[in-house]
Structure formats: structure tokens, C-alpha cells
Amino acid sequence: MKNNILLIFFLLSFFPVYSQKPYIQYYNTDNGLPQNSVKDIIKDKYGFIWLSTENGIVRYDGNSFLVYKNFPLNSQRFTFFYGNAEKDSIFTTGEFGKGLLIHNKFPRVASINKYPNFILNHNTNYLLYCSNFSYAVSSGMNYYLNFKEGRYYLQEKCLIYEDFHSKAESRLSIRPIYKNGPRVFAMNELLFYIDIPSKKVNKIEKGKITDSYDIPLLRDINSKILWSQINNQTFIINKGTVYSCNYHDKQLKISKIITLDNVKDENFISVYFDEKNKKLYLGSSIDGLQIISLSDFVSVKRPPSKPESVFYATLPYTSSSVITVFGEVYDRHGLVENKGFKNTSSYFLDYDHAGNIITMGLQDAMIYQKAGSYKKSINLKLFLKDFFFKDGKYYALLKDLRNNQTPEFDGILTVFKDQSFLSPEKRIFFKNEPTKFLQLDAVNMLVGTTKSLYKISLKTNKIYNLSGAQQISIRNIIRSTHGHVWITTAGKGVYLLKNDKLIKIPYDTERNISSAHTILEDKNGYFWIPTNNGLYRVLESELLKYIQNKKYRVHYYKYSKDAGFNTNEFNGGSNICGNLLENGEFVLPSLNGLVFFDPLKIKNYYPENIYVERAVIDDKEQYFKNELYLDQKSNRIDLFIDVPYYANSDNVFIEAKLGNSPNTKWEHIGKDRKFSISNLGYGKHSFIVKMLVSDDGKFIYKKINIIIPPYFYQTLWFKIVTFFLFLWLLYLIVRWRISFLKKRNQELEEIINSRTQKLSDTVEKLVTTKEKLHKEVEQQKKLIGTITHDITTPVKFIALTAKGVLDENNFNRERIEKILTSIYKSSDQLYNFTITLKEYADIYTHRSDETEHYSLYQLIEEKKILFNEIAGKNNTVINNQVDQSLLICISKNILSAIVHNLMDNSVKYTQNGTITLESKAEGENIFLLITDTGIGMEQKKIDYYTRLQDNIDNEKLLLQKYGMGLHLVLQLLQMIGGKIIFKKNELQGTSFKLILTNKKR
Fold first, then answer.
1. Nearest to residue 599, comparing CAs of 586, 582, 614?
2. What global pTM score does this model have?
3. Backbone angles phi, psi at 318, to 5 degrees
4. Which of 121, 353, 665, 696 is most buried (most C-beta within 10 Å)?
5. Hey, what's the signal peptide range on this chain (predicted)?
6. 4 pLDDT tier (thresholds 50, 70, 90)
């Protein structure tokens, strides 16, 4: 009995660090844990919380759990943590000789021989003892503890200390009680032994007891001690209450942390307290993990006997309490007093100038008298919305109760002469229900209604609509300490009134500021804004920066249930939606309790570190440092942004962008803290992340490089080689083209030369032809002239002879015969002349330079057949002795005409003789010899024709004298480039030797 009284007294003497109801989060296999037994808890140097379980290791960043298991070990069951968190060397036990090393935010299998779980000393095995957790508790189990300067060996009946420097050992007799391990724990490089028989807690330094403490809670049989040497923390759990045990100023101090309802102490096996973030982590053997958030916010509810704890209008009552419309007085510890206000409205409460409390009933105002300790009241027929007292007058904002008289008006601004509210001095009517008003100066006043904001001139009674055409429902009008006027609305956000213009401030990311109830300003210039979803804090200076520069980003800090509220929904709609107490506390009404807090003691938590080291690439996780190497085949990359942060995740503001271009837009990162990339091309890319770390808009940045190697055909060297190959190929093509063009030019030149030559030849031929034609024309002119001259005489002779015959009357036979003979000879001469002329014309008409090879013998044979009959009449024989194999390509019709004329002459002038034709070929020259035995040609004619042949163009043709035959022959020979030699035979007859050129095709 005495011990229990001492224990109660001892507990009452503890400093109550955190006494309000906490916010508790429960985690198990249903929402993140791989197993429900949390063996140990630790925080690494980077700020991450680690949990050891029987199914892997878990990393917690305040937002999500990251489970590591499937290690190449025989078992995934892990127990306590040991090592040194500050040196980034945290170990946990696994199978014998192996365990896990948590280093650089990542666990990996490592040998633990340097940090063994078992050691051998003087042939005795010792198990590492660095926390309350052990493998098993059995008789004869020995333990060891490591410190910086020495080691303790703990046996059942003694304690041995070994100094690392001197290697000396000292013994101390103790009797450890083996219940969940030895009754010893370590803090601050000191060992504490709970001596149950002596009811003392002994402090042991270097193997010696140096001090003792009488702490009933530590030696209470119902107390469970949970400690961790690596965390340097010790906790006591007794009947659902968690205490911390600290050694400071040579004293062991016990502080109460929290009292939990309906819990079993024996289920807790691990504890970690994050004092910086005010988070208590409790690991259970069967129920997983509890995270308890401790806060300086206090939510006070009505007693259980009262209705639900929905609060609206409140008033400061004392320096640390408020009074509600029910007459109930509350401070941060709960209900203090109850005045028992009856039938009051929840939306109006205020003091008059004498300290009386005015509240509203259904249709009238009730004034509770301060003189009667607010027990008595008087009623007034008024429906007050807001009022204030100044210079002996009451300014009241009323809802019009006389709708039958003025149905078009719903609100009235009234100035009363005194407190009686019976003598109105001035009235100004409004068409909609008023909500709040504020006096700007001695003349002007702001009035907010459910639809507009008005500026009223009390001097002229003029009303100015400041909200314009837009409808806004005014909730509150606040003047800050710097004189700025701020307007809160229902659904339209917060405005600054400046120069009679409303300037809207930006929303928070969730747009909760749109329904802001009021603004409370603390001494540090922060605005506290309660909304329907959380409490927001922002510097007034930040809002003013936005007013000056609309591109400036305003950041709101949000507090929600995890900060200590019963609900996130605060209440507005009343004339007073929040109070500032004399002790510096703020009080806000909510849907479930009154929230008390000291704004100067509330700490805001911003993340401090940001890590980008994990990625999931095509559903495969990959870890990297500063540079991430990817393959071009990767379709989707998820980059994870790890941030150890243990407050409201809504306050984590992260933006990221891919690329370092100023035009690249920042993308907001959601609560999954993941940035997805797809179809990223090869090259070196920059991934930049920025995170807000303070109220004044300061950011920290993290940059990593994403390197995607190119395929070989995308590399620079390949492009260079390809470029030079292209140049080389282009060079070859150019060279080939130049060569081709040169060759083509040569061919064209040859073609041109050939064609030029042909053209020259043609021109030459044309010139020659022209000359020939000219000559022919000239010859023809001569011939025609000669023919005309020669034909005239015989024709005229025939005509005159015929006329003479007709004119004479006497005809004798001799005379007629003579005349007819003359006419016959002249006609025959003329006939032969025309026949020759016809042949000449036929040659010119049917002339062709193109000839085929033909047989000269056959040509002579054809002419022989033609002249055989005539020759036969003259008893003349024609002999064709031309070489039968001789083929010539001289113009056949021309040569035929030449041969015809020469044979004709020979046949005509040869009787009883022979005509012989012979041939001889010498190269291109063909010699055709025609020899007859006729009367022969006169030498005179031979000379004429020889001379004519040499100068046929200029000589006069004597056709009438010598006939036309040989003239024709000479003309034809000139056409084929031949010559004729006339020779008179020695005996008889004439020889014609034709010299011809046999031009091969």
C-alpha cells in the first residue's frame, strides 16, 4: 500500500510534457507493412525511419513504406538494430555470420564479423545486448555490451568490465533478473542496473557503481522497459502510459509522453521517439506499428453529458479561457464553468461597452449582466449581426425584422445614441442580409452582406458597391496591425481592399482558402486562416508580395487532424470566428471542439532533404547516384523523389522539370512523389527537382543527369565517320561525274567533230555540188543556147523548104526528090539530136550518187545485146572481153549512158569490122578500152574533144558541127570524175580509153 502511494505521488510529480489526446495512425499488413511484428525502430542520418520485421526491412519516409525483402539469406527474419546511425552504419541481425548493413539509405547483405552478435571470451559465449530485444530468455544466457572505451560482459551473477585501452578487467557482483532480458539499460555511455532487492537504480561507470536513484516507476514490476543503445533512448510503459527516461545533470528524469487507451503493455516490443517532429513510434509484436503525433494544439470537447461539441461564436472570458453561446467557459484543459445561457443562437456573441455579454435568441437580443455574474439577462427586440461602441454611440448591423413594412430591404446599418438601442440616430438600408462591418475612419464604413461589399459614407449616407457586378458573400472584415484591410468570403477566397478595389489573393493547392472564416494575426506577422478543411498559416508579407507581383507564388502551411484537431472543419458564419486571449493563445471553433494553441509555440515543419536515387524502369526497380543510365528501349521511366517528412504531406511542395531550358515548365509533384518520363531520346538530360523549405519561399534543388547512350549509328564518331565517308563518296561521285562529263564531252566533241566533219564534208559536197550544179547549169545554159541556135537553122530550113514547095506551081520529080531529101536529112538530124537530148535529160533526172556494186561485164553485155542487131546489119562483131569478176560501184546510169554513146558511135561508123571492149583494174582505177575498126575519127575532132575535156566550163560547144553524143559523154565523165582518151588507130578505127575511179562504199 505504501509503495502504491509513493508511486502515485511520484507520477504526479512528473512534468506533463504532452497531455492532450494524440493523433494516432495505425499500420499493419493491410496498409503497408510486410508483417505485423515490428522488432525494432531507428532513424538514420538521412532522416528515414527503419523498421525490422520477420518478413524484411521497411523504410518509412512519413508518406509511404518501402519494403526490402527477398535478400539472399536463409531467412528474412530480422531483429534489433545496432551500430552507429550517425556514421551511416546500421546493422541488423540475420542468419549466423551474415546480416544487413543499412548504408546510404539502402540495405544490403553484409558480413557482420566485425560487428558480431556472438563473441567468445575466456571460453564463454556472449550474446550482443544492445536493446530490450533478445533471441531468447533462458537460464545461463550471457550477454555483452559495447561502449566507446570498454565492454561489459554480463553474467547471471556478475558483471565484468574490460577496458579497451589497458585491457584490464574488473568484476562487479550483481543479480540480474532475466525477465525479457537483463534488468540493465544503457544511456549516454553509461550502464544502469535495476537492483530490485535494494529498490535502487544503480549507475555503473567503467565497472563501478557511481550513483544510485530511487525511481519507483523503473523498479515497478508492472513497468516494461524498452531501450535502444543505438538510439540512446529509454522508455517505460506502465498501464498504458508511455514515459521517457533521460539522464541529464547527473539525474535520471522520467517524463510522461502519452497515455493510451485499451492497450496491452506486453505487446509493445520497440519504441522510437522523434522529438524533432514530435512523433512517437510504437512497435507491437502482433498489431504492427502505431505512429502517435504529439502537438501543441489542444482540442477541447463538451462534457459527455452535453450535446455534440459543435462551436461557433465564442468570446475571451479570462486570460486563458473563452465563453460560448451556451454560457460554458473553457480553457485548454476543458470545461471550467457554466453560466447556463438558455435558448441562444450559435452565431452571435459579444461584449457591450460595460462588459455585459450580448447573445441572440430566435428573434431578440439577450444581454447577460456582468453585475449578476452573467446569470441574469434582459431582452431587446433586435436581430443583431454585428456591432461596436465608439465615442458614446453604438453602431449596429441589424437584420430587418419588419419585412412587412420594407420587404425590399433585408439589413440595416443603425447608429444608436446610447446602449438602449431605442434611439436610432441614423439608418441605412441594404437589400440583402448583412454579415460584418468595419469602421474605416470617422466618416466611412465597410459593410459586408451575403452578396456584396459596400462602402458607406456616414456623412452623406451614400452607398458604394465595391464588389461591382460580381456577387460575393462576405464572412469577415479584418484590419491587420499594418492597417491593411482583408476580406474573407464564403466560396470566393480572400481579398485585400486597396484604394477601394478588391484584389484577390491566390488559393492554396486544394482551394480550401476559398471558404476562409476569419484571419487571426500573431506577433510574428503570420495570418492564421481557419477553413472548412484545415487551418492555414501564411505571412502577410507574402500576400503583399503577390499583390505587387502576380507571378509571385504564395505558399500556405496547412495544419490538419494529425496536428491535434478532432476535425479538419472549422466553423464560421458567426460574428466572431476566433479569439486572441491575453495569454497569447488563439481559440478557434470547429465542428468537433474548441482548438486552443499558442501561435508562437506552434512549429511548422518543412522537409530538409530531398533524394532522387530510385527509378522504376519498365517495371524494374533501379538505384543510382547522381547519374541514371538508361537504354533507348526503355518505354516508361518513373523517377521517385524521396523526402523524409513526418508532418502534413500537403505542406510538401515539390516541382520538377526535365531539361535545363528556361522555357521548360515546372511540373507539380503529387503525393505519390513520382515523375514519369516516356520516349526519352538519347543524350544527356537534366532532371531538376526543387522543394520548398521555408515560409519565405526558399527552395532547395536537386539535379541528376539522365544519360541514354546512343546506338552506334547515333554516336558522334559514327556521324563524323559517316560525314567523311559521305564527303569521300561525294568526292568519288564528283570525280566520276567529272570523268563522265569529260568522257561525255569528249564523245560530244567527237560527235561534234564528226558531225562538224560531216557537215564540213556536206558543205564541201554542197559547195562541190553547187559548183557542179553551177557548171551543169552553165553547161546546160550553153547546151540550151547551142541547141536553140542549132535547132533554129534546120527547123527554119524545113519551114522555108516546105513554104517553097507550097509556093511553086511546077514540081518536077527531081526537084521534089531534092526538097524531100533535104527535109528528110534535116528532120533526121533534128530527131537524132532530140534523142540525144532526151538521154541527157534522163541522166540528170534519174541521177543518184548512191550506187551498189555491180558487174561491169554484165553492163557491157546488156549494151552488147542492145547493139548486136544493128551491128549485125553492118556485118560488125562486138567482142566483150571485160573481166567478168570485176565489180564496180560507179553510178550505173551515168556509166551506162557513156558506154551507150561510145558503142553507138562505134557501131554507127563501123562496117564489116569488129568492136572490142576490154577492162583493166589498177587499185581504185578502172580502165575501159573500146576499140573499133570503123572509119575512124578525124584528128580535128579528137583535138576538139580533148581540148573541150580539159576546159569544158569555158569552151564553146559545137553541137551543130560535131553532134551532141560526145559532148554528153564528156559532161557525164565530169560528173563521175572520169576521163576519156581519144586515139586514132594506126590501121583503122578509133580507140576510146575510159579512166574511171572505182570508189568503194
1. 586
2. 0.71
3. -120, -170
4. 121
5. none
6. very low
3-state secondary structure of 890: coil
CA distance 734 to 892: 56
> 799 pLDDT exceeds 80?
no
d(CA 574, CA 313): 6
Tell me which residue has cell 543503445.
229
Coil, helix or strand at residue 325: coil
Q: Which amino acid is at 152?
A: Y
User: What does the pLDDT look like over 508-534, one tens digit per residue?
Assistant: 999 999 999 999 999 999 999 999 999
Closest CA to 882 of 915, 852, 907, 906: 915
Grid coordinates in use for 550?
502576380
Buried b (16+ CB within 10 A) or exposed e, 423-441: eeeeebebeebbbbbbebe
Closest CA to 39 of 86, 76, 89, 73: 76
Alpha carbon distance 357, 322 (integer Å) = 12
- At residue 793, does pLDDT exceed 80? no
> Residue 18 pLDDT more than 80?
no
pLDDT at 874: 82
Distance CA 522, CA 542 (A): 15
Instruction: Round to whole Å and give the CA distance between 480 and 518.
Output: 12
Residue 217 backbone dihedrals phi, psi, to 5 degrees: -65, -35
For residue 757 the three cell numbers come to 566533219
Q: For residue range 648-695, list pLDDT tens digits in order.
A: 999 999 999 998 777 889 999 998 999 998 888 888 999 999 999 998
Which three cell numbers mark 693?
A: 523549405
Q: What is the CA radius of gyration of the chain?
A: 68
> What type of residue sits at position 930?
I
CATH dotted code for 611-709 = 2.60.40.10
pLDDT tens-place string over residues 758-769: 777 777 777 777
Write out the H or E segment, with its range, that includes residue 178. none
Q: Is 613 helix (H, G, I), strand (E, B) or coil?
A: strand
The type of residue at 964 is M
* CATH node for 14-296: 2.130.10.10
d(CA 754, CA 933): 53
What whole-number distance in Å separates Cα of residue 921 and Cα of residue 998? 9
| E-only strand ranges, 15-74 | 23-27, 38-43, 49-53, 56-60, 65-68
Give backbone dihedrals phi and psi of 591, rounded to 5 degrees, phi first: -75, -10
CB 320 within 8 A of CB 602: no
For the sheet with 233-238, list strands across it: 224-228, 233-238, 241-248, 251-259
Round to whole Å and give the CA distance between 303 and 312: 17
Task: Supply 307's cell numbers.
Answer: 450535446
For range 821-833, the mean pLDDT: 64
Q: How many CB atoms lie within 10 A of CB 221?
A: 7
Angle at 391 between CA 387 and CA 395, to 5 degrees: 20
Q: What is the phi/psi pair of residue 361, to 5°?
A: -95, -150
pLDDT at 93 exceeding the cut of 70: yes
187's enclosing H/E stretch is strand 184-187
Q: At 622, give phi and psi (nearest 5°).
A: -140, 140
- Amino acid symbol at 970: L
Rounded Cα distance, 56 and 805, in Å: 161
Top-level class of domain 848-997: alpha beta
Q: Which of 448, 695, 403, 469 is nearest to 575 (CA)?
A: 448
Q: How many CA atoms lie within 13 A of 424 on its CB side?
A: 10
Query: Would you tell me how many other CB atoms lie within 10 Å of the CB of residue 662?
Result: 5
Rounded to an integer, what distance in angstroms lies between the CA atom of residue 336 and that of residue 823?
Answer: 181
Closest CA to 969 of 960, 979, 959, 958: 979
Helix (H) or strand (E) holding 158: strand 158-163
Q: How far apart are CA 511 and CA 490, in angstroms?
A: 12
